[in-house]
Amino acid sequence: MTQGPSLAPAYSFLRACRNEPIVETPIWIMRQAGRYLPEYRALREKHDFLEVCRTPELCAEVTAQPIDRFGFDAAILFSDILIPLIAMGIPIDFDPGPKLGRAIASRKDIASLEWNGAASLPHVKPVIRAARERLAGRVPLIGFAGAPFTLASYLVDAGASKDLIRTRSFLARDEEGFSELLDLLATATIDYVKEQIAGGVDAVMLFDTQAGCLPPAEFSRAAIAFADRVLRSIPKSTPTIYFALASSNGQLDAMRAIHADVIGLDYRVSLSQARAILGSGRSVQGNLDPAALLLPPEQLVARAEAVLRENGGRPGFIFNLGHGIYPETPVENVALLVETVRRHRNAARRIA
Ligand code: CP3
Fold first, then answer.
1. Which residues are designated catalytic?
2. Distance 86 CA to ligand 1 centre (A)
3. If you compute the radius of gyration of the chain from its CA atoms, what whole number of angstroms results?
4. Cα(309)–Cα(116) distance, integer angstroms
5. How far apart are CA 15 and CA 26, in angstroms?
6. Each residue's pLDDT tens digit, 85-108
């Protein structure tokens, strides 16, 4: 197994995941490889989205673009949470939002889904190896997957949906049937993340973007419990991040039970309240409002500094946005954000 250059233990991102004392704050941003970058748009003119995800040289190039330009402290593998669903027999069109070829509406539909293990995703190891080679040990590489509930919601609502009406009514009507779907998706996701780890990713992030739409009992039973099953299958040597767009204190409280090293925070929660609820043993990642990147420079700097101040120099903190970056974001503002976090980091180093 080629692992590429080995990673020095000094990587600030990995140390922050493990809640080790460090003075510098690592930064990366969700959707850092994407349409706000001119070099990404140029490459996408020639190649379609799935082709980029599955072709080693293209995937490696796009994964490294934000590192080359901004020097973030971690790279995230260029892919999409919905890719394993294609291997289960669901055609998906990205235009750019995902449209699924058919919806899963019943137990019979669930029985029609096929999963043949990691062998059905033969591109995974080659793209990870290529990305690692392209990064040449500069930064750790984050692998990721959708959490079972969020994948289920895309299958049942046949694409992105704001209120998940079909998903929530399926769950309310037939929780046992819905659990069969979650079981299958948890199995597939465990195989998928293990394949990524075998390919050489340094950390794994689980996206539960849609979980916040659920009422409290279902949030714990359908989202947290199945995400937890996936997270528990990951060896301790690989740090894990769980991210849900979930903004109530009750939901944060339910996340305390989850087996993840880091909790990714939605931009709608208070960082200090979240830290109080989650406790000092847990690292957090977040949570600047992505809309702050659309502000004039001084206001953006003030908002970023407010996040750093709110963390108050505590260890176990990874600077990020509270959701993915918007395609209309000016690239200069991203450079300014990185510079602001670096300035703070250098000041912290001088004091330490
Ligand atoms: O963070 C990164 O840079 C890595 C790449 C990444 C993509 N999707 C690329 C992508 C990651 C981590 C994802 C995760 C993802 N995909 C999530 C969870 C995180 C979140 O944002 O909530 C979800 C819900 C999806 C499903 C999905 N795929 C949506 C909603 C869309 C449309 C988004 C949009 O920007 O309009 C996609 C397509 C997609 N995935 C694009 C990219 C760069 C746009 C495709 C294009 O280039 O046209």
1. 31, 35, 44, 80, 154
2. 15
3. 19
4. 48
5. 9
6. 999 999 999 988 899 999 999 999
